[in-house]
Amino acid sequence: MENLTKYYNNSLFQDNEKLYLYFTLGTNKYALNIAQVVEIIKLPLLDYPKKLDNNIIGLLSYNNFTINVLDLRFYLGMKITPYSLSNHLLIVKTDESIFGLIIDKVEDIITLEQSQIESSPFSDEERIIEFLYKKDCETLSVINLTAIEALLKQGTQAIDIDIQALFPSDDDSRYKLVQRNQALREKFESNLSTNTFSQDKFISFSLGENIYCINLEYLKEFLKNTPLTHVPCNLDYIAGVITLRGDFISVIDIKKFLNFEENILSMDYTEGKNNVIVLDAFDYKIGILVDEIFNIIEIPEELVNKNSHNPDKYILSEIVMEDKLYTVLNMKNILSDERLFVEEIS
C-alpha cells in the first residue's frame, strides 16, 4: 500500500522552513520562523533584579526554567514606549537558548515566497534583521534569533532608562499581570497542555457557508489562487496535484472526501483560483482544497474537549466563539483514513 502522494511521486517535500509568524511592534512589522516559536502568551508580571543588562526587560519563570525577556526595540534603535496589558510575549528558541520577546500583536502566519525576499539593510556583523519580505504593500523585517542570542551573551552598555517604570503599575493592572503568572504556573503543574506553539492554535477556513479549522501541528503551508493539474483517477475526491518546489503533492477535495454534499459546487480545478492547505500527514504530505482561507485563531484545549463531537469520525469539536460556529476537524482520523491509500501500481 502507498499513500496518494507517493503514488504520484516518491520524493517528499522536505523543506519545513517556509512558515513564518507575522507580528507587529509599534508601527513596524516583523516575521519569525514558526519553527522557533514555542508559545505565545499575554504579558505576565516579570521579575526584574537590579543587575540586568538594559536589553533584558525582565525574567520569567517558565516551565521550571528562568528565561530572559527581551525588547527588540533596544536592539533596533526604536523609541521605547510603555508596555500595557495588551502586549504579548513570544517564547522563542534557538539551538542553545530559550527566551522571550515582547511584541504588540500577532497578525498571522504566512508562507514566504522567494521572489518577495530582499536583502537585509544590516551589515554581516549586526544582522538582527536577516532579510526583508514584501507582503502586498507592506515590508516585513525577518528576525535573526541567532544574532540576538549572540548579542544577549555579549551583554550591552547601560542606557539611562527605568525599565520598571515602563510597566503598568496601577493596582488593577498589576493584579491582572499576577493572575497571568498564576495561570502559566497552573498550566505546567496540571499538564493541561504541552508547551508547544501549535497546541491551541488553528488555521480557519470555509467550506461552503461553514467555518472549519485544523490544528497548526498538521499545517505545512497554505497556497492561495494556485492551479491544479488533473490526473487520471477514478476517485472523485482527488482534485489533482500541485507542484511545490519541484515535488508533486496530491490534493483532495475535502468536501467530497467528507461527503459534505450540501456544500459541493461545480468547480474548475485547473482555473488557478484554488486555495490549498498543505498538511504534514505523519510520514507524507497532502493538500486539501478549501473555499477560502481565513486566519489563525486560538481555541483553548479545554474548550475543544468540552465540546467534543465523539459520534462523528471526522469532527472533533464544535465551538461557538464571537458569534461564529467553528467546526474542528479530527485530522488524526482523516489523515489515517484508508481512502488516502491506494494500491501501488508497478
Task: Walk me through what this model shows.
16% of the residues lie in helices and 40% in strands. The termini are close together. With 346 residues, it is α+β, with helices and mostly antiparallel strands. The radius of gyration is 22 Å and the shape is globular. A hairpin with a 2-residue loop joins strand 2 and strand 3 (28-33). The longest helix has 20 residues, at 171-190. It has helices at 4-8, 72-76, 145-154, 171-190, 254-257, 301-306, 331-335, and strands spanning 2-3, 19-25, 28-33, 37-42, 56-62, 65-70, 88-93, 98-103, 105-111, 117-118, 129-135, 138-143, 201-207, 210-215, 219-226, 238-244, 247-253, 274-281, 284-290, 292-298, 315-321, 324-329, 341-342. The chain is built from seven helices and 23 strands. The strands form five sheets. A six-stranded mixed β-sheet has the order 9-2-3-12-11-10, with no helix packed on it. Strands 4-7-8-6-5 form a five-stranded mixed β-sheet. The protein has two domains: 19-190, OB fold (Dihydrolipoamide Acetyltransferase, E2P) (Beta Barrel); 198-342, CheA-289, Domain 4 (OB fold (Dihydrolipoamide Acetyltransferase, E2P), Beta Barrel).
Largest sheet: 6 strands, mixed
Q: What's the overall average pLDDT, rounded?
A: 80
What is the first-to-last residue Cα distance? 12 Å
Q: Uncertain regions: pLDDT < 50 for 5+ in a row? A: 1-16, 191-195
Give the H and E element order. EHEEEEEHEEEEEEHHEEEEEHEEEHEEHE
* Overall tally of structural domains: 2
Q: Could you say what the CATH architecture of the largest domain is? A: Beta Barrel
Number of strands: 23
